[in-house]
Specification:
Layout lengths: L17 E2 L5 E2 L3 E8 L15 H10 L5 E3 L5 E3 L4 E8 L5 E7 L15 H12 L1 H4 L16 H5 L5 E2 L2 E5 L2 E6 L20 H4 L5 E4 L2 E4 L5 H9 L15 E7 L4 E6 L14 E8 L5 H7 L4 E5 L2 H12 L4 E6 L2 E7 L9 H9 L3 H9 L3 E2 L10 H5 L1 H7 L7 H10 L20 E4 L2 E4 L1 E6 L4 H9 L1 H6 L3 E6 L2 H9 L10 E7 L6 H4 L18 H11 L6 H18 L2 E13 L3 E2 L9 H4 L4 E2 L5
Parallel strand pairs: 3-15, 3-16, 22-23, 22-24
Antiparallel strand pairs: 1-2, 4-5, 6-7, 7-10, 8-12, 9-10, 11-12, 13-14, 14-15, 16-25, 17-25, 18-24, 18-25, 19-25, 20-21, 26-27
């Protein structure tokens, strides 16, 4: 693969905001920015193998063409630069059909400017729902296809025909949602389909349509995808034929750097904007020196900065006139994540006891330098439901204030009362508590995977192991690379899990999927349900939320509060802090306006470079 460019490029710029002949608006194209991140990119660029923030940002920038998008305000909207129409029909059997007509001027970014057709949209649905895709050790729950009529037969490999999808003509297709999945809170999301280049991923494969649905030809096989998707340099690792505001020029796995350039075939965002910054380089930066790089100009944008040390360092650069910043409440938090299906952390008592061993207020203060607060559920400071119900949530959820006696109490009540020999645990004599689990002694010993050069890991290592030891728990800390941590958490290629606990961060998106995240269905384990938690009450509350009409905010909020209460009791994760995010960026970047639901990869499409500040 090509080496990424490390030098800054200079371009002559004209800065009048102009309307294009096709109705889109943009500044004159030019310039380069370098985006830094303290987490490494990895080689996986296609959905199904990784969910690292920067890899997800790349996918957001290079994969486009979704028929339904969401606005900066988080509302769903048909994208007029992709779809001519999206129409729904209520069927007699209670199912619903969405018929989608795409524009006839969409083109892939390959040398031939291959037209994007309805077949590419249908292929995308068939690809991600197929057992062939799942055979690549990929998550097979990517789209809403599991809600389409005929999914089970197709996904299991029983049939090559997907009954609920129809290919009408070159620019029209339809999807039919099962009656069992309706009503659905985010109803229009069923019609959000994006394309994949069938001629690249499945050359010589054909899709035929009949009254029974669409059928993919028998030469669509796992062996084919091993060549076109999974092989070194194939689509999973180097998806260069795409449709988005940018395209992937190169990725160097040795340096963890990627280069994106503008896709000239991109017609515009839902509100008619084309990108203006010509080239984006993504690279890894060190947490301790990232602001030095910003000041020196070797990095132009560092997004989602948290923690007092990093924020104050960035503000110093801004105070000196060498950068700008944007600040917004985070739609998410840093967290401890538990595997809830094996070992000691399968028991809520152990998860609760760990929470009681940690002074989260002090942790948030030390980590953030005053730029964070502690939350007690599955929400961030900017979550709309929390803003509407803050008093109730703050008053009714357990805040798990540090209390070692309470930690002992919950452990003892759950049977962690034995020592290594099966006798009674004696404080001051025995070090680790044991419990009789299915006739065998289980040690209250937790394996924790964390990442290097991570201030959250460092602070947890300082504050947590000693306090856990005082109540009879042992914490084994292992430092691994970020990609290894994710593989172990998602259990990608992992037959026997090792780690009970991880620390990382999570973000909340406008489309909540609680009914998948806490489903007890095996299909969602490791993809949506990353805790591998199985709790009937939690799953039931989440499933009921799915059917609440989108406009019924009162019913939604009531169910959301119930979900938070049960989640707070089970504690599949421990929220560590929900903080203010700061994006620090070069003075040359103009019209950059991120927020918690409109992160850098969306905001940068609207930005441009001011020559005067280069």
């Amino acid at each position: 693969m090509k080496k990424v460019l490390a030098l800054m490029l200079a371009f002559a710029m004209v800065f009048a905001f102009a309307a294009c002949d096709d109705g889109t608006t943009q500044h004159t194209v030019g310039g380069q920015i370098v985006v830094g991140s303290v987490t490494d990119l990895d080689a996986n660029m296609l959905d199904g193998w990784t969910n690292g923030a920067q890899n997800a940002a790349i996918r957001s920038l290079i994969f486009g063409g979704a028929t339904v998008t969401y606005t900066k305000e988080g509302e769903f909207e048909v994208d007029p630069y992709v779809a001519k129409s999206v129409e729904s029909t209520e069927n007699d059997d209670g199912s619903k059909t969405y018929t989608i007509e795409i524009r006839d001027d969409l083109k892939w970014n390959d040398e031939e400017n291959t037209p994007i057709t309805a077949e590419d949209y249908v292929f995308s649905l068939l690809f991600y729902a197929s057992p062939e895709y799942a055979s690549l050790d990929a998550s097979d729950v990517h789209t809403y296809t599991n809600c389409y009529v005929g999914y089970e037969a197709y996904n299991s490999g029983e049939s090559k025909t997907f009954q609920g999808i129809r290919l009408i003509d070159d620019h029209s297709f339809s999807v039919t949602i099962t009656a069992e999945e309706l009503p659905y809170h985010y109803d229009i999301a069923y019609a959000a389909v994006d394309p994949l280049p069938m001629h690249v991923i499945a050359p010589d494969v054909t899709i035929t349509d009949s009254e029974n649905g669409v059928t993919i030809s028998d030469n669509f096989t796992s062996e084919l995808l091993e060549t076109t998707v999974n092989a070194n340099g194939a689509y999973r690792y180097l998806p260069q034929v795409t449709y988005g505001p940018y395209q992937l020029e190169s990725y160097d796995d040795s340096t963890k750097q990627a280069v994106l350039v503008i896709n000239n075939n991109f017609l515009g965002t839902y509100d008619g904007v084309k990108p203006s910054i010509e080239r984006i380089v993504l690279k890894t930066v060190n947490d301790a020196t990232q602001m030095d790089e910003l000041e020196a100009g070797s990095v132009d944008l560092i997004s989602g900065v948290s923690g007092g040390t990093a924020i104050n360092s960035g503000l110093d650069v801004c105070d000196a006139g060498n950068a700008q910043y944007a600040v917004y409440d985070r739609a998410g938090y840093g967290q401890i994540t538990f595997a809830c299906d094996f070992g000691p952390t399968q028991f809520a008592s152990v998860r609760q006891a760990i929470a009681y061993c940690l002074d989260r207020d002090e942790f948030a203060r030390q980590y953030s330098g005053g730029y964070a607060k502690v939350v007690n559920g599955l929400y961030g400071l900017s979550t709309p439901e929390y803003k509407r119900n803050q008093e109730t949530v703050d008053n009714e959820l357990n805040n798990y204030a540090k209390d070692l006696e309470k930690a002992k109490e919950v452990l003892i009540a759950d049977g962690w009362t034995l020592n290594a020999d099966g006798g009674e645990f004696v404080e001051g004599v025995d070090e680790v508590r044991y419990k009789n689990v299915d006739g065998e002694l289980m040690a209250c010993e937790i394996n924790w995977a964390n990442t290097p050069d991570n201030p959250v890991s460092d602070l947890l290592n300082t504050m947590l192991p000693g306090e856990m030891a005082k109540v009879g728990m042992k914490l084994n800390s292992t430092t691994v690379e970020f990609g290894v941590l994710l593989n172990n958490m998602y259990r990608t290629g992992i037959d026997e899990p090792t780690y009970h606990m991880f620390n990382l961060a999570t973000g909340f998106v406008p489309i909540s999927s609680y009914w998948y995240e806490y489903s007890m269905d095996d299909a969602y384990m490791g993809s949506y349900n990353t805790n591998f938690i199985r709790d009937e009450e939690l799953a039931s509350i989440a499933a009921e939320m799915k059917q609440i009409p989108y406009e019924d905010k009162e019913a939604w909020d009531a169910a959301w509060i119930n979900l938070q209460k049960r989640w707070n009791e089970l504690l599949p994760n421990i929220p560590l802090y929900s903080d203010e995010y700061h994006d620090f960026y070069s003075n040359k970047i103009q019209n950059y306006d991120p927020d918690s639901l409109w992160q850098w990869e969306r905001a940068i499409v609207y930005a441009y470079i001011d020559e005067a500040d280069q």
